[in-house]
Design a protein that fits this description.
The chain is mostly helical. It is built from four helices and no strands. Helix 1 runs antiparallel to helix 2, helix 1 crosses helix 3 and helix 3 packs antiparallel against helix 4.
């Protein structure tokens, strides 16, 4: 794997972390009625999508998009459990594990 590809994966990971931030941030905006959370959420959205577009220059778009959303799904689901008191049923964790397996599979297949 080339350095350029490694950099693209790192950028994609950062984009995924920002996606977690804006997905969870949506809850705190209360329908975009709170200024500070709204600004933070919109900033994270723009930055996340920009970094996704940068990573997609090198990585296949199907892989990049699936990994980006997968990171966001896993992070938002876990933070929903830990911060927002959402269900922590074992079946939910099993589904999160399946998403993680898909992300790992896509990374290994490139």
């Amino acid at each position: 794997m080339s350095t350029n590809t490694n950099a693209a994966w790192l950028i994609l990971f950062l984009a995924g972390l920002l996606e977690i931030g804006w997905a969870v941030g949506l809850k705190y905006t209360q329908g975009f009625s709170r200024l500070a959370p709204t600004i933070a959420t919109l900033t994270a959205m723009v930055a996340s999508m920009y970094l996704l577009s940068v990573a997609a220059k090198t990585l296949p778009i199907g892989t990049a998009y699936a990994v980006w959303t997968g990171i966001g799904i896993i992070g938002a689901a876990l933070l929903g459990i830990w911060l927002l008191g959402e269900s922590s049923d074992w079946k939910r964790f099993a589904c999160i594990a399946l998403i993680l397996a898909g992300i790992i599979g896509l990374k290994l297949l490139k």
